[in-house]
Fold each of these.
Amino acid sequence: MPPPQARLPWELEEEILTRLPTKFLVRFRTVCKQWNSLFNDRSFIYNHLFLPRPQFILLTKYTIYSIDITDPTMKLLERHTSRLGLSLHKANITTCDEFLFFNYHPWEEKTSLCNPWLRQVKWIKLVVDKHFDVFGLGYDNSRPEKVYKMLGYMRCPSKVQTNSYLQRVSMEVVDNVYKMLEYFRSPPEDQINCAFQTLRFIDTPDEDMPMSETAKSSHVSLNGNLYWIACNRQTREYFIQSFDFSSEIFKPVCLLPFQESSSCDEHVLAVFKGDRFSLLMQCYLTRKIEIWVTKRKIDDTEEVVWMNLMTLTATNLPKLFNKLYGVSYFVYDNTLVMCCGDDESGKPCIYIVKGDTCNKIHIGADRITWFTHCAYVPNWTSVPLEF
């Protein structure tokens, strides 16, 4: 009888697994029940979440790519998602914590959550009026379990000249279906109970809740809530606006750390280290880039304090304002990594900026005529089968 094989202490085994790339962990789920249970453990997921370097997700008409950056090289990997039935053309992608959120045109009547590393997707059917636009997805973080909700608005052509032109709507997912029974041209009731869904109209003046098309494609998700950059129409102050899905209210979070900024300057908000904000600001005249981060994690109990993380003055920095397909970025190891269109051709490029140097890498897909992108941290959190 062969002698029993020596086994590593479980703590050491867990530490080793924490440091492995996500693509290997997906395969290792089937090794044993203990490993599979570990990969579903929340603390293990968070420990691993902070170790991987963020990547970019690039979405084209027909393909999803992940872009792994190791200065000065780039690894472009096609994510095989054909079996998932994802409609890629003209979708907008943002993140909802560990997942990608696919937001389509209103007439598509659907959205979806996806984890491309696990090749999992969850479709959310929208039975709504053609004038309904989805703004973003979040969840009620006051409950023990995640209850996903959607924020959107209805365009009411008969009220273009009034403050009710955009009717804000909060909807809670029930049986995986968002449903609205009719299109309201008159002031809606406070609450409409539908067959599958509860719809709540949020009576908020437009000036208290700026929801622009830019914010729709550039908001960030943190702890179930949505955040985006807005500008006060009266004071012209820039601030971070939020929507709290637990209380279903809009509320300002904090002012941006610079108020003398020109309206032509570019501002991009991102999540930093999983629980804080980072803010990119590029001066329109000089192209100088400043990266600001919040000193503490974002919650309702602490005042937001900004600190300057880096100022970048390389002479060949790209022009970030008015990019057709937007700008996404992350900060890792004192390096700014950006994804956006080339200044001249508009083709997708990666820019790696550190100190006074800026390296540009062409993604090299000349056939790409349309794309969207976002920064994303690889993980193996399973997409919920039921909400």
Note: The mean pLDDT is 77.
Amino acid sequence: MACLSPSQLQKNRNLKPRVVGSQPGAVQATAPAVLWERFQEDGFLVLEGFLSADECEAMQRRIGEIVAEMDVPLHCRTEFSTQEEEQLRAQGSTDYFLSSGDKIRFFFEKGVFDKQGNFLVPPEKSINKIGHALHAHDPIFRGVTHSPKVQQPHFGGEGGPAAVTPHQDASFLYTEPLGRVLGLWIALEDAVLENGCLWFIPGSHRGGVSRRMVRAPAGSAPGTSFLGSEPTRDNSFFVPTPVLRGALVLIHGEVVHKSERNFSDRSRQAYTFHLMEAAGTVWSPDNWLQPTPELPFPPLYI
């Protein structure tokens, strides 16, 4: 997961963003003030050419190496879902997911295992997401997360075929006050209509948060629950946001977004992480993702 804080967008170095669970010419062609206004208005912003093709290829090679070496016990093979009931039953009830904030762990697509948990497809085709500490433990992804491109933007995560239902990141990464979490979503391959690009409801970040995923008390089952509910939204409100390989999409923590199922024969790999503005912000102790003594949320500027 990856994200930028509002203070970074304003380039205010007096505040302290922290990482929680990139043609440069195209970015520079628009005035910083115009980009900032666009982000404030829509709740998301596309910066094409943020990473080069070589940088994207290096990250994809590294993921291939990590997947080739993965060894997930049968009882930990969790199918990842964003459907609420499945979410609570699968990852929300397993320690493998709930304790993954400071580790590199693997979460899988639906239908890739038989009843015994054995792979029905090649393992490299089974992955929905890898999380949630690539940014901390892997040098390639740590280098991108803390690169000068991220620390000094030009203005003032997960991949797979499964659809991602409409949601707000702040439902899972809640802060007080709101508006302190922002996501970085970097396309390692072209993300277009056919293979599951992002869709947004422009301006939806100004309406608050409709639901929250919270941790249950220790020893309770399931391990998480939802407060509130996700309202039914008119699909006509969503705007598709196709991007080319190397593009960065900035995502406000409260903007409503989704992705459709990938029905094409092309993959759609992306790297995403989040940043939180540390100064004057309280990270909710009810969030499923919590810093640990082994891995507190690292400062962006290291």
Note: DSSP finds nine helices and 15 strands in the chain.
Amino acid sequence: MQQVISVWVRDPRIQKNDFWHAYMDYEICLHVSTTAEKIVSLMLFPCSNCVAAVSCFQTNSVFFTKKTSRVRRRFSEFVWLRQKLQENSLLLLQLPHLPPKNPFFSLNNAQQVADRMKGLQRFLEKILQSNLVLSDSCLHLFLQSQLSISKMEACVAGKTSFTVAQAVQSCGLRRFHSEEDLQRDLSVFCDSDSDSSECRDPGHKTRELTLNKSRSAATLDLRGTCQEEMLS
């Protein structure tokens, strides 16, 4: 069976660590289909904020088990990915370059943001055409999980209670480590522009989410980490 891989980078957002420190991340949309589904794959995500036409690549092997994913990554994580892929390829492959670091890069400069975003898309387009890169677990965790760099490295090294496949399949489902994580999520939820009854009655939301905490420790660890990364 052949796979058609569609990828694009879009939707830059400024994320704040605190009052003084901020960074920008980007949404990576990935869709994997068979050759017959290629045209349909272009319709899965609205493309009003896409930086370029969706790029499709056909492979002769099945590399992705998760059909559709959306994750957010910052530039420093792209730098980490390239370094890991280059190390793991044992210099058998010369990887494409990322957009150059600009010491004068401004989060509020629309042209600079657009240029970087296009460069990141070109980077993904090129590496996804290499079977050697496609077989690397770091790439799959980068594209289809919200694990942090340290968690991705630990997972690839077999030092986590979950496998790479479990990380890919489970990430994005809402689970919480503790009451603190639960309250932090509620705080973010109610600080948004939502005018739902759940914000007006946070106790209801707390009770509802608390019922979902009766999973195994390994699943809680994995899915809670994904949620933490989405909120960070």
Note: The domain at 3-39+61-173 is CATH 3.30.1520.10 (PX Domain).
